[in-house]
Write a structure and sequence with these properties.
The complex is a heterodimer.
Chain A: E1 2-8, E2 18-24, E3 39-42, E4 60-61, H1 63-81, E5 121-122, E6 125-127, E7 131-133, H2 144-154, E8 207-212, E9 216-221, E10 226-232, E11 247-253, E12 256-262, E13 278-285, E14 291-298, E15 307-313, H3 330-351
Parallel strand pairs in A: 10-11
Antiparallel strand pairs in A: 1-2, 3-8, 4-6, 5-6, 7-15, 8-9, 9-10, 11-12, 12-13, 13-14, 14-15
Chain B: E1 20-23, E2 30-34, E3 43-48, E4 54-58, E5 73-79, E6 82-88, E7 108-117, E8 120-128, E9 137-145, H1 158-167
The chains are: A alpha+beta, B mainly beta.
């Protein structure tokens, strides 16, 4: 038996946008009568966080557009799955100039990518973006402070020219020490804010495992194996205690689990956010044992306005396999070592008068 | 960085009906159990504070481990009030202690978690590993629930503490050693 429930999307959008989520009356419930969200969910989707500019303010894809997106993704994966020519030449040193992992010298191919097969649907309509507000489906403009932070971060990246280009610049270089590197590269937090909050889909490792008790809700994110422990009906820790994933407190609002998170460190998983980030999330039982996940991002020192999004978390029978990111992180050492070699090359060349 | 060997050795779980936080005796870390609210759910999940390790105990036979892993592959059953967990599929690279007592990938650990009181568990683990030990051996100790009202599992990002050890020599300006 299915009943239809209207859920208000909080924030300034509430008067404009309502989405309807089918809630199964036979949703598993705890002894207290709350929905039991315990389960495993696969959040992979082709729908991006931010809407491609070509769609403007259009929240939904039409069926043809959705099919085209799915077909193109399937064709790209099929092409990538084709057997490699064993007699192919090695890629040119430094890459062939194309975009992608260091100029197509070899990176993640389709074997490693598990980002879904289609755009997600809400109420039978395919969505163009996870973000719903602002109306263009994109993150709002940064504040001057936020922009300054982002530009400082961008300045640490440069074209891979095979040289120590940063040596000609004043100030710290991008490879000076490990803490200059992005958090995902260091296996501290998943890229794409997989562990969040807000918890977003990524290129792979998209499973979420929720285990719920009367006092806690735990969400294991496959990426980096972040176990996020949400205390229910509790108070936040003192503001001077800061965590990578913030401090999350949950409460029930009808059949929706509402989670508020604050007290982040200076670099939360969410790109562009800072230590003043506050995230409100809503987990509501949805179709087929899945959830509907909605979030609000409030960070007035980073963005000029709050922004909002939502997407479904379909249930899966798959198990979350152990992901020990740090075990295999030889790349970080090689990145650092490579930078030292390039610096030495530059010094050697300079000494030779080149 | 390696999660503690032989999952559950010295770690904590709450008894079957209750969640909680505790620190095992002589154990550097703590762990919170995110238990099912009733017996009969399909799994028990343990989030360890130490190294942020996690572990799921499947109450339906998950079959053979797809491949070895740090925390192994756990199948749980109930023996009365005792949660019995058979752990297989553990990588052979973890140690039992800092003295280097080791095991093989063929090790089978059978754990038993038995409630002694609302705030105590008896933890037992039998280690069978013919490739390493001449006979099975068993450890047994009580685990105590943390009683502070604000006892919580805190964030433990091991990476931050080991980066210098692993990559420090490749700093642009290496630190004194």
């Amino acid at each position: 038996m299915i009943r239809m429930t209207n859920l208000a999307f909080s924030g300034p959008l509430c008067a404009l946008l309502w989405f309807c989520t089918c809630v199964h009356a036979d949703v598993p419930r705890t002894q207290q009568g709350h929905p039991d969200l315990t389960g495993t969910y696969n959040v992979a989707t082709l729908t991006p966080l931010q809407r491609p500019a070509e769609f403007g303010d259009k929240l939904y894809l039409n069926r043809d557009e959705a099919q085209k997106m799915a077909a193109e993704a399937a064709a790209a994966k099929a092409q990538d799955d084709e057997a490699s020519d064993p007699n192919r030449e090695a890629p040119p040193s430094g890459g062939d100039g194309s975009e992608g992992a260091a100029g197509n010298v070899g990176g993640y191919n389709a074997f490693w990518i598990d980002n879904g097969e289609q755009a997600f649907e809400v109420d039978g309509k395919f969505r163009t973006s996870i973000i719903t507000q602002p109306a263009n489906g994109r993150q709002p403009a940064y504040t001057p402070t936020g922009l300054k932070r982002i530009m400082a971060f961008y300045s640490l990246f440069g074209e891979n020219t095979g040289t120590a280009w940063w040596m000609d610049r004043p100030g710290p270089g991008p490879y000076d020490h490990m803490e200059m590197r992005p958090l995902g590269e260091r296996c501290i937090l998943g890229f794409s804010s997989t562990g969040g909050p807000p918890m977003l889909p990524a290129l792979y490792n998209n499973l979420k495992r929720i285990v719920q008790t009367d006092s806690h809700v735990m969400i294991l994110t496959e990426m980096i194996h972040d176990a996020r422990v949400i205390r229910l009906n509790d108070t936040h820790r003192p503001d001077n205690i800061r965590n990578w994933m913030g401090d999350s407190i949950g409460r029930w609002d009808g059949d929706t689990l509402v989670v508020e998170t604050k007290n982040f460190r200076k670099r939360p998983a969410l790109y562009g956010a800072d230590e003043n980030l506050r995230v409100v999330e809503r987990f509501t039982p949805g179709e087929g044992g899945g959830l509907h996940y909605a979030f609000e991002v409030h960070n007035p020192t980073a963005w000029q306005e709050s922004w909002y999004g939502d997407y479904p978390w379909p249930a899966t029978q798959d198990k979350v396999y152990e992901y020990a990111c740090h075990e295999g992180n030889y790349a970080l050492g090689n990145i650092m070592r490579g930078a030292r070699i390039l610096e030495q090359d530059a010094k050697t060349d300079a000494a030779a008068g080149q | 960085m390696v999660p503690r060997s032989a999952p559950g050795l010295g770690a904590f779980v709450g008894e079957p009906e209750v969640s909680g936080v505790a620190v095992g005796p002589g154990h550097a870390g703590g762990a919170a159990s995110m238990q099912p609210s009733s017996v009969g759910k399909d799994s028990v999940f343990i989030a360890y504070q130490y190294a942020g390790a996690t572990r799921e105990i499947y109450m339906e036979d998950p079959g053979e481990a797809p491949v070895d892993s740090w925390m192994g592959w756990s199948h749980g059953t109930w023996d009365g009030d005792t949660l019995v967990v058979k752990v297989t599929g553990q990588l052979d690279s973890t140690w039992f202690d800092r003295a280097g007592n080791h095991h093989s990938a063929a090790m089978v650990v059978t754990e038993r978690y038995t409630p002694l009181s609302p705030n105590h568990l008896l933890y037992e683990a039998t280690i069978e590993d013919p490739a390493t030990f001449t006979k099975p051996w068993t450890i047994r100790m009580p685990l105590y629930r943390r009683m502070e009202p604000n006892a919580q599992l805190m964030e433990f990002r091991c990476v931050e503490f080991v980066e210098e050890l692993m990559y420090g020599e490749w700093r642009r300006e290496p630190l004194p050693r």
